[in-house]
Amino acid sequence: KTLISASSQQVGSGVELVGRSGEALQQIVVQVEQIDSLVAEIAASAQEQATGLGEVNAAVNQMDQVTQQNAAMVEESTAASHALRNEATELRRLIGEFRVGETEAKPKATRRPEPQPRATPRQMVDRVRQAYSGGAATAAKLDGWEEF
After folding, report:
1. How far is CA 122 from the centre of its chain?
2. DSSP sequence for the chain
3. pLDDT tens digits, residue range 77-97?
4. 99 backbone φψ class: left, alpha, beta (φ>0; ψ -120 to 50)
5. Phi-psi region of 112 (alpha: psi -120 to 50; beta: other; left: phi over 0)
6. What tens digit of pLDDT does each residue of 63-78 get?
7. Shortest CA distance to 30 belongs to which of 18, 40, 22?
8. Which of 104, 121, 123, 100 is nearest to 112 (CA)?
9. What is the distance in angstroms between the CA of the first residue and the CA of the last residue of the chain?
10. Is residue 113 scored above 90 in pLDDT?
11. Residue 124, Cα to own-chain centre: how many angstroms?
C-alpha cells in the first residue's frame, strides 16, 4: 500500500509536471508566433527600405546627370562668353577706325598728297562741254552756264 501510495504521489507529481510542461510549451508557441510576426515585420521593413534605397539611387543618378549637363552648359557658356568678349574687342577696334563728328578726316598715311590746283568755273564748263560735245542742244545748254 505504501508503494502504491508513493507511486500515486509520483504519478500526481508527474501529471503536474506534464501540466506545467504543457503550459510552458503553450507559452513557447505564443512566443514563437510573436517572433514570427516580428520577423515578418522586419522583412517587410527591409523590403520597404530596399525600395526606398532604389528610389534614392535613381534620384542620385538623375542628380548626377543633371550636374553633368550643368557642367557642360557652364563650359559652353564660358566658351561663348570668351568668344563674345573677343568679338566685342574686334568690334571696338573696328569702330575705333571711324571718325564721327569731325569735319575733316585724318589721313592715315604720314605723307600727304600734293594738293591739286582747283579748276575755275570757266575751266569746269569747258570740261563738261568736252564731255558732252555730242550735239547742238547740249552746247546751247552749256552756254547758259557760262553766264551763270
Report:
1. 74
2. -HHHHHHHHHHHHHHHHHHHHHHHHHHHHHHHHHHHHHHHHHHHHHHHHHHHHHHHHHHHHHHHHHHHHHHHHHHHHHHHHHHHHHHHHHHHHHHHT---S-SSPPPSSSSPPPPPPPPPHHHHHHHHHHHTTT-HHHHHHHHHHHH-
3. 999 999 999 999 988 888 887
4. beta
5. beta
6. 999 999 999 999 999 9
7. 22
8. 104
9. 177
10. no
11. 69
Q: What is the pLDDT of residues 11-62, one digit of tens each?
A: 999 999 999 999 999 999 999 999 999 999 999 999 999 999 999 999 999 9
Interacting residues of 106 by C-beta distance below 8 A, sequence separation 6+? 99
Q: Which three cell numbers stand for residue 136?
A: 547742238
146 has pLDDT over 60: no
Q: What is the CA radius of gyration of the chain?
A: 58
Cβ contact 105:115 at 8 Å: no
Cα dihedral value 38, 44, 49, 55, nearest 10: -170
